Amino acid sequence: MSITSRFNRLFAPDGKCFDVAVDHGFFGERAFLSGIENMHQVVQTLVDANPDAIQLSIGQAPILQNIPGKAKPSLVLRTDIANVYGKTLPAQLFSRMIHEPLEHAMRLDAACVVVNLFMLPNQPAVWEQCVQNIMALKPICERYGMPLMIEPLVMKDNASAGGYMVDGDIDKILPLVRQAIELGADVIKADPTDDVNEYHRVIEIASGKPVLVRGGGKVSDEEILQRTYDLMQQGAKGIVYGRNVIQHDNPSGMTRALMAVVHDNATPAAAIKHIEG
């Protein structure tokens, strides 16, 4: 199977994608489990809402893939695990790739695999581990025609920020996104910039590869819909949101609202009716 055929499963015919990330339990943080305690229920709710893809770990992916029928979201498989998200960081940080990631991905019929590229303040060893993970993963992805999604993630200092926080500084995001491209990313999953109106520069630096925008922490309906609309206008090919969907009182409605923004160019005022109605 070629990368194009799997791209056609990941992206809708319009070339856009909404991937709902529910792989948060992989990272060992209690706060990340809010809204995803019952994964069978979460996955079924998302399947019913019908986003383009659902992002899961090797342990939870069978919940999606064991659901009967052809009409369900594609699987994006998380291939790495890290301990960098806590309010107080441990003495030794790591970002490690699972063993035989492509064997798992093929067995689970994934349409794409995803791996992190962390840039943490004063933690070059974690960045190096991520680079090593990507360099090991890329040739195997090429061999099996598996799209590689790289997640360049610039983080603020956990202690000063009171826990894991995204750094939206465009001067830090641009070189890390470009590095992900240089390492062989087929898809970029990047954070929004502090000034959303500058996001076209992230699209440009990605050299024609599709850019999907991370959602980050939960915000109001109005804010996430407006931000998503603005990012799509800047040239993003879609979004990868988790907590803004799974921690919502109406995850199905929020999924439909975001799908309308991504695929139908719906305004925030029009999209929010999917939640309210």
Task: Write a structural description.
- The chain has one domain (3-276): TIM Barrel.
- The strands form two sheets. The chain has an eight-stranded parallel barrel with strand order 1-2-3-6-7-8-9-10, surrounded by six helices.
- Helices cover 42% and strands 17% of the residues.
- The chain has 13 helices and ten strands.
- The mean pLDDT is 93.
Question: Brief overview, please?
Answer:
This protein is an alpha/beta fold. The protein is 42% helix and 17% strand.
Mean pLDDT score, rounded? 93
Please trace the helix and strand order, writing H or E for each element.
HEHEHEEEHEHEHHEHEHEHHHH
SSE-based structural type: alpha/beta
- In the sheet with the most strands, the strands line up as 1-2-3-6-7-8-9-10
CATH level-3 fold name: TIM Barrel
Distance between the termini: 42 Å
Spans of 5+ residues with little confidence (pLDDT < 50)? Answer: none
Major beta-sheet overview: 8 strands, parallel, barrel
When the domains are counted, the total is: 1
Q: What would you say the CATH architecture is?
A: Alpha-Beta Barrel
Q: Can you give the helix content as a percent range? A: 40-55%
Shape: globular
Beta-strand content bin: 15-25%
Count, helices: 13
How many strand segments?
10
Output the CATH homologous superfamily: Aldolase class I
Rg over CA atoms, rounded to whole Å, is 17 Å
